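From the shared-data thread, chain only:
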Amino acid sequence: MTDIATASTCARLDAVSKLFGSFAALRQVSVELDSGRCYVLIGPNGAGKSTLLRILAGLLRPSMGTVKVFENLEPQQARERIGYMSHAPMLYDELTGQENLRYWASLYPGRECMTPADALIQVGLDPNLQRTLGQYSQGMRQRTSLARVLLPSPELLLLDEPFSNMDVESARQMVELLAQFRHGSRTIVLTTHQRELAAPIADYVLALQAGRVASFEPGNPTL
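Structure, as tokens:
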């Protein structure tokens, strides 16, 4: 794990608010995220977790406040360095895992990416499996979705509910995978309703409540 004294800043949010009409999804959020750490965002539905993740990914712009990633870039300027895994798997049920990843790799023309086979191996899946995604278990689907995000080797990995609909064993395996990916300079920010699942890799836990930061506490990673 990166030493606190030498950790560089991966992302910084200063007084960020996000309005959807008259509804404030985020209210004056200010946090700083260090490189090489895992941050776990918790809070009830509607707390602003997914909105915060999408702002970091450059998919939404804040209504007020500023967001900088990799020292002094706007997220929109650094999308090639950011990987975002949403609730929706963004995969095709009629294709195999490797066929899905070949399609996604084709969307990065001229950019050096992992091979689809290597990405699947990295998340513990057999790249030669001939079953279509529609025949995968939920745990296998989530792993394939993670492999899709890993293709361009992002430095900032944003995961929205990566344990969604997983059984306990599949979730545990996903946590072990993420523990491997967070070492070095890669930063992970993930949302979850199940804090205990992510506890083994949580360097920090950020709790949101009604769009505000309710607490920002050190975690106790064991992996």
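The chain has six helices and nine strands.
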